[in-house]
Design goal:
- The chain is built from 16 helices and 9 strands.
- The protein has a 7-stranded mixed beta sheet.
- A hairpin with a 2-residue loop joins strand 1 and strand 2.
- Helix content is 39%, strand content 13%.
- It is of the alpha+beta class.
- The protein has 2 domains: 10-167, no CATH class; 175-387, no CATH class.
Length: 388
């Protein structure tokens, strides 16, 4: 890194000194703007690898999509980063004052030719949290403090060990479990509707999905017919509710109501206006009637537990949910209507598809098989023109 000498510059803040088997490190709080300033060079290192990444044989460049999501998230009313970012600072750039428990970080331009100069924007190397830092760079709110854990004078091997412990050894939260937590939300949101819909369809005894949805993403004790996860229901229902669910949720948190879908847009966001109008039970009824028609049309395939049968599993469900918009538009007079099971079944009755055809040999696992089955539904129903 080419360094242009700059005037002395420092940052001083209160910290707690933590002693653990790995050694001592410091925990403190920094305003996001100051954190972004001292890590600017490290976070923007998009080409090549950081030292500990070379040591571990990995490379983790910034994911622009993830950064964009964080940029949007930090502007929401209840944005929160409870876990701190982890930084590594060279010994020559840090001074700890035991008396007042403060840590001072500063740039370094010394006479020692063996010690690399360190400008202010490169004081700290980011071991964990680079996406959060970049996402906060243009934060427009009144203030966003970030917890920081700072290791002083550790080498590349120690940085690699800490990175591995935080990123590779931890258990990630199951997406279905994360979705299930929306039950605790007080305010309305598209996320909460998706959760409530999945719960209703799973718990009601006459539902075509009775005890078939893995609420927490893993098999429920005592159940043997669970074929899809709550996260899958969420993924396929959400596009009919919102193009920007984070923004919609934030509007509700602020006591506002999201914008309704206009006439043409409502043909894609088929459930949006029903959701905004508080007609959530009607949305459940549409899904119930639609999949009840599937169950009646192909009962053996829908109730099958045989290996390789896919109609009631992820690929079958995803293809059917994609076809739902077409079937819904074909049966209604206006957006907001609730077609009956019989109306939906008339569409499926047109399809000359045998129950044994819904297998993983014809429809391969993955998105290719899902897309193939969706195409077959469109062609067999004669409703291809409504897919636009």
């Amino acid at each position: 890194m080419s360094v242009i000498k700059e005037d002395p510059r420092s940052l001083k803040f209160e910290v707690l000194r933590i002693k653990q088997p790995i050694g001592s490190f410091f925990i403190g709080v920094l305003p996001s703007a100051q954190l972004c300033e001292i890590t600017d060079f490290d976070v923007r290192r998009l080409v090549g690898e950081r030292g500990f990444e070379t040591y571990l044989g990995i490379q983790r460049p910034l994911d622009k999509k993830r950064v964009k999501q964080i940029q949007q998230y930090v502007e929401t009313k209840d944005a929160c980063f409870p876990a701190g970012v982890i930084l590594s600072v060279a010994t020559r750039c840090a001074s700890y004052n035991e008396a007042d428990r403060t840590l001072e970080l500063h740039n370094y331009f010394g006479a020692d030719e063996t010690a690399e100069d360190v400008p202010y924007r490169a004081i700290a190397k980011v071991i964990d949290g680079q996406h959060r830092i970049e996402g906060l760079k243009n934060f427009a709110g009144p203030g966003f403090q970030v917890g920081v854990s700072i290791f002083i004078g550790i080498d590349v091997a120690e940085e690699g060990y800490i990175f591995s412990t935080v990123n590779l050894a931890q258990t990630k939260v199951n997406r279905s479990l994360a979705t299930d937590l929306y039950e605790l939300a007080v305010t309305n949101s598209p996320q909460k509707l998706c959760h409530n819909t999945a719960v209703t369809l799973d718990e009601e005894k006459d539902s075509p999905f009775y005890h078939r949805i893995k609420r927490l993403g893993v098999a429920t004790e005592g159940r043997f017919d669970e074929t899809i996860t709550q996260a899958t229901v969420y993924d396929m229902l959400m596009p009919y509710l919102s193009k920007d669910p984070v923004k919609d949720r934030d509007l509700y948190l602020r006591g506002k109501t999201p914008q309704r879908a206009a006439s043409m847009e409502s043909r894609k966001l088929i459930f949006r206006n029903m959701f905004i109008d508080g007609k959530q039970l009607e949305i459940v009824d549409v899904l119930w009637n639609y999949f009840d028609a599937v169950r009646l049309r192909w009962p053996d395939a829908w109730n099958s537990n045989r290996r390789g049968m896919i109609l009631n599993k992820t690929n079958g469900f995803r293809a059917l949910m994609r076809f739902l918009r077409i079937a819904y538009i074909a049966t209604i007079q206006q957006i907001g209507d609730v077609p009956s099971t019989e109306q939906f079944k008339r569409i499926f009755d047109r399809m000359e598809l045998d129950q044994e055809e819904f297998n993983s040999e014809l429809y391969l696992p993955g998105t290719g098989g899902e897309a193939h089955l969706y195409k077959v539904f469109k062609e067999a129903s004669g409703l291809e023109s409504l897919a636009r």
